[in-house]
Amino acid sequence: MPDTDLQRRCHTVLPGHRQPRPAELFAAMAAWCEEHDVDHDVYGNGALIQDFERKVAALLGFEAAVFCISGTMAQVTALRLGGEDRASRLVALHPTSHILNHERSNYQLLDHFQALCAGDRHRPWIEADLAAVPDRLGAIGLEIPMREIGGQLTDWDELEAIKRHCRTRGIHLHMDGARLWEAAAGYGRDVAAIAAGFDSVYVSLYKGIGGLGGAMLLGSRAFVDRCAEWFRRQGGNVIHRSPYIVAAAMQFDARLAAMPAYFERTRLLYQALRAYPELRLNPAAPQSNMLHIHLPVERERAFAVRDALAREHGIWMFNRAVHGALPASSVIEIYVGDNLLSMSDDTVREALRLFAAALAANAKMTDSSTT
């Protein structure tokens, strides 16, 4: 049975937001378009998209923003042009960077730039990681927060030091802000304060916002215009962007307003998880409204436990799981959104109790099979 079918049967779903089916989503989009008298854009020209671009740019304190069909296209383009402006094709990336881990070597195969790993994959960057690079860097790509290590944030003082480092050395500083909206609550600062000092920023219109897809790239007007031209060259010049803009714009303000509540709900989840010390949390305390949980079973058993809970109790615990670094271990991710926000404390605790008990039983099975 596909995961979506099994999940849809569950009455208790912990991660993320409730996902409307296409008919429900499209009906809501149609009603919003009718209410706001929306017309299609034509190749990015139109009141809806241009007003939304200006809104996002102003929110983050940038001169301009431009829609891009995907963050994958937006980021490598920004880093390519940022490095070219500084006469160096060498770009420093954290070992857990999305570009290095999930984009099929696009930066290399499409000849965008040369990538250099810097820092320790198990913690966010510190300024010393970049100062230790002897080469002349053209650009740096910094993810805020860092998904692959549980949504950790670069320490604020270190972030300011990294900004100074790049400014002093003339390095283009780019932010992978796929989850920047989530970082504001963790930092206790608005997104403009976080983005200040970056030369370019990418933000997602679907990860935290819940749109159909797409991204925004922000920077100076001249830089954004050049990036837009490169999007066209790479096949990103879709004739109508209105579906993506509508899906994001109609819930944008509400999702941003809910981010502090998601973060507070994450605190409660941490408190509940402390009852099960065998479930190891990363980070140790909330830094954004997501976390990783290290489990005492291998990945395949983690999925088996998840699916059994779904079938027998109507509880869906997680979506994503990866192999752990140690034998008989795995790591799952929980993004705290509307689902957990609307769930009672007792329901959360009961779901965790059942999950921990099932994991413990499966861990014993693993131990007995290896002795």
What is the compact description of this entry?
The protein has 371 residues and is of the alpha/beta class. It is built from 15 helices and 13 strands.
Give an account of the 3D structure:
The chain is α/β, with parallel strands linked by helices and 371 residues long. Helices cover 49% and strands 15% of the residues. The protein has 15 helices and 13 strands. The protein has helices at residues 3-8, 22-36, 47-60, 71-85, 98-102, 106-109, 127-131, 156-169, 180-187, 191-195, 221-233, 242-273, 299-313, 338-341, 345-369; strands at residues 12-13, 64-68, 90-93, 114-117, 139-143, 172-177, 200-204, 215-219, 280-282, 290-295, 315-316, 321-323, 330-335. The strands form 3 sheets. It has a 7-stranded mixed β-sheet, sandwiched between helices. A 4-stranded antiparallel β-sheet has the order 9-10-13-12, covered by helices on one side. Helix 12 packs across helix 15 (345-369). The longest helix is centred in the C-terminal third of the chain and has 32 residues, at 242-273. It starts with a helix and ends with a helix. The mean pLDDT is 96.
